[in-house]
Design brief:
There is one protein chain. The chain has 25 helices and four strands. With 575 residues, the chain is mostly helical. The protein has a two-stranded antiparallel sheet with strand order 1-4. It has a two-stranded antiparallel sheet with strand order 2-3. Helix 1 runs antiparallel to helix 4 and helix 12 runs parallel beside helix 14. It starts with a helix and ends with a helix.
């Protein structure tokens, strides 16, 4: 029930928000806050309750596919923390938007709840087609919000964002359709087994299609062209969600769908690792040159996510907890910085850091909070960012000294541009005189301050995050096995009468094949390798492999008995 609520209830909340008065933003905001607090509480309960899965419900059948598409949700540590980022950043966005939007607040809240539901579905979907449905559904409310509430170039930004993300995902849609036609269904285990029997060239083609969609969404160089204009022109509360939660869908796709399904050669691993490092360096250099505050934060986000992708493809044993801590730390720090930059723009009427300045004197509370969050984003010791980035750097060291040195360069560059950003915004001399706009409210300051405190808490005790990484429990594995390998119906007797003794060996072999579809030792070894690359512990991999092997052996052993019983029944009927 908890999983269903987190995915479906935000859409219900969006519908209920439409029933409120458009001319009464106070009542709309009170209802929006109530829903927002409820979803944050549900996401915290999801993390606390551990792994869980819903019952797999047949949704629809794709023409040419062997099995059905399932509405099937599964929560593990990675997905649960991403859901918490989605709900918490959405709540703070609703809080900060109340002081910017007046009569349009209701419609903004509708869009935020629709986006939240799509993001939660992306992080909790256990069926590949269901995942792709939510993965694409995120684009619609985000593009509408950009076009309706963005800056001067909002129409261009919305179109660029929609075209990049939808076109980038088109090859993945074709590849996914092909996979479900050769697999038993669209669950992870079935797709992984089906890929083992494909030609290596076909495997590489399908892998490239999936990688492209996730690289665009993250974004990774050279597919980052949509990010700067989108983050800059989107309203600051939405930009915080885009960088803090929605961009995590790409990294989540690499971990949850690429590593468990595809057999990766070292050529692919090295290429993706270096592409992530290139993105990290390139993003940091662009941020160092940027004069637009929101574009600077956009390039900074690109750099940190590039480092996360490089960490994913280091494939070390410590990769998964390291990347998870980095993603959570980045989601909180980058989101808080976008909220603060939006407040600074509202306060000074510009986001040009060359014209901003002296905000520490004009608003000491804002200046202190701005500097506090900026320092936390530098990954200084004692913060969650330090734990995440340092452990990712150690993971890259397993790939060699050079990747670790490049990652270290990224950390130095990030410190350089962030300190410059702080100096320009809160300590610099303003280039022009401006009238003070709306100041930061107590609700905004307290919510952003809580995000900063969480960065310290998770830095001092990262086990709050990493303890959630028990990706598969026994009940979930059994449920997946039941759906991936349903019991085959008994063979019906033929309408043509024939004695049982004329059933030849070929027919018997066909009956065995129809009932039993065992996994070979090579399939099991490859699956074990993929699970290890995805961060599964030795005990989890051994348990999963043992269950699959036992299931295959039992099916093969039962098949001759079932065929013999069927033949005896036919013989009795003929007599």
């Amino acid at each position: 029930m908890l999983l269903h609520l987190l995915v479906l209830a935000p859409f219900v909340a969006a519908v209920l928000m439409a029933a409120t008065s458009k001319e009464d933003p106070k009542s709309s905001s009170r209802l929006a806050f109530l829903f927002g607090y409820a979803f944050v509480a549900l996401s915290i309960a999801l993390i606390a309750s551990g792994n869980q899965a819903t019952e797999a419900i047949e949704w629809f059948h794709i023409p040419g596919a062997k099995g059905s598409v399932y509405y099937y949700l599964y929560s593990h540590g990675l997905g649960a923390w991403m859901v918490l980022l989605s709900t918490s950043l959405s709540l703070v966005a609703l809080m900060t938007a109340r002081n910017t939007l007046d009569t349009n607040y209701r419609n903004f809240a509708i869009g935020i709840f629709a986006l939240m539901g799509a993001m939660n579905g992306t992080f909790l979907a256990a069926d590949a087609v269901l995942f792709f449905f939510f993965f694409e559904a995120m684009v619609i409310p985000a593009a509408i919000l950009i076009a309706a509430y963005g800056g001067k170039e909002r129409t261009k930004a919305a179109m660029t964002f929609a075209i990049y993300t939808l076109v980038g995902s088109a090859p993945m849609m074709v590849a996914l359709w092909y996979l479900v036609t050769v697999a038993d269904n669209s669950l992870v285990l079935s797709l992984a087994v089906a890929l083992q029997n494909l030609d290596p060239a076909m495997q590489s083609t399908l892998l490239a299609c999936f990688l492209l969609a996730f690289m665009v969404k993250t974004p990774i160089f050279p597919f980052h062209g949509w990010q700067a204009i989108t983050y800059a022109e989107a309203p600051a509360p939405l930009s915080a969600i885009l960088t803090g939660a929605m961009s995590k869908a790409g990294v989540f796709g690499f971990i949850a769908w690429i590593l468990p399904i595809f057999p990766l050669s070292m050529e692919w691993v090295d290429a993706m690792m270096w592409l992530g490092l290139l993105t990290a360096v390139y993003g940091a250099m662009l941020a160092f040159r940027a004069t637009d505050g929101k574009k600077l934060l956009a390039y900074s986000s690109m750099g940190h996510l590039g480092l996360a992708v490089a960490g994913v493809f280091s494939l070390s044993e410590s990769m998964l907890p390291a990347v998870l801590v980095l993603l959570v730390a980045h989601g909180l720090s980058a989101g808080a910085q976008f909220y603060l930059m939006g407040i600074a723009e509202r306060f000074a009427g510009t986001r040009d850091i060359e014209q901003l300045g002296g905000l520490a004197k004009r608003n000491p509370v804002f200046g202190s909070l701005f500097g506090f969050v900026a320092v936390l984003s530098l990954a200084v010791p004692g913060t969650a960012g330090f734990v995440g980035e340092f452990t990712v750097l150690m993971s890259l060291w397993d790939m060699g000294p050079l990747p670790a040195l490049v990652a270290g360069l990224c950390l130095i560059l990030s410190a350089a541009y962030m300190l410059r950003f702080v100096q320009k915004v809160i300590f610099g001399t303003p280039a022009r005189q401006y009238e003070d706009g709306k100041r930061m409210t107590a609700l905004e300051g307290s919510s952003i301050g809580i995000m900063g405190v969480l960065l310290l808490v998770f830095g001092m005790h990262p086990a709050f995050i990493t303890n959630a990484l028990q990706l598969f429990d026994e009940n979930a594995v059994q449920e997946m096995n039941k759906v991936s390998h349903p019991e085959t119906a008994p063979v019906e007797s033929s309408t043509v009468e024939a004695p049982a003794d004329v059933v030849d060996d070929a027919t018997a072999d066909e009956n065995v094949a129809a009932v039993a579809q065992p996994m070979t030792e090579e399939d099991l070894r490859q699956l074990d390798s993929n699970l290890k690359a995805n961060g599964f512990s030795d005990e989890e991999r051994a348990s999963l492999i043992a269950q699959l092997k036992a299931m295959s052996e039992s099916e093969v052993a039962e098949a001759p008995e079932q065929n013999e019983a069927t033949a005896n029944e036919e013989a009795s009927e003929n007599e």
